[in-house]
Amino acid sequence: MKSFLRVLIGLLTVLMAVETVFAQTEKGDKELSIAASFMSRKEEGESEAWTAFNIPVRLGFFVTENVEVEPEILLTKYEEEDAGYVLSGNLAYNITLSDPESKTMPFFLGGFGFSNTIIYLPNFAWPGSEDETWTVVNLGGGFKFFMAKQAALRFEYRFQQFSGDWDFTYHNIFLGVSAFFE
Question: Residue 141's domain is classified under what CATH number?
Fold first, then answer.
């Protein structure tokens, strides 16, 4: 966690020193994004919630100036348990603000995926067997704050519904960086 924060702070410092630009994307652009996720879960009838840490990696493809297809792998590990993953396909709509000098680009996303694991109790990850998977529905929104022409900070809230033998709902907050290229 400390290493990730040091790298993130270092990247931000370099990006701020490079140049100031405006939030602009074009059809054909690509976005590589990595983030850290803080996840909170509260059981029905319980008074306390617990938290976990996830790392999503995405490679987005802009099919128009505003519409982006984002395949994603989210890796999760809680204490000593085996690592799990969520494979998703998300569709994002990026909003170009009317102010041409804006460095902020809000977005909304929705998607569907599969997972081999769910975190369902404090201190325990339930790894799926070869025959066991959960479906995942993603809904969320956030913003990208451009620090340079090809780099942005990314802040996102995500609602996730896991369905299988049991249903679980998660609320995630992602903070990360994005690199844009042609």
Answer: 2.40.160.20
87 pLDDT band (50/70/90 cuts)? very high
31 φ, ψ to 5°? -135, 120
What single letter denotes the amino acid at residue 29? Answer: D
Question: Phi/psi at 27 (nearest 5 deg)?
Answer: -55, 135
Nearest to 159 by CA among 31, 40, 67: 40
CA distances from 37 to 8, 16, 26, 64 (A): 14, 23, 28, 28
CB within 8 Å of 57: residues ≥ 6 apart? 33, 34, 72, 73, 74, 75
> What residues make up the domain containing 145?
2-181
Contact 84, 115 (CB under 8 A): yes
Number of domains the chain contains = 1
Answer yes or no: pTM beyond 0.85.
Answer: no
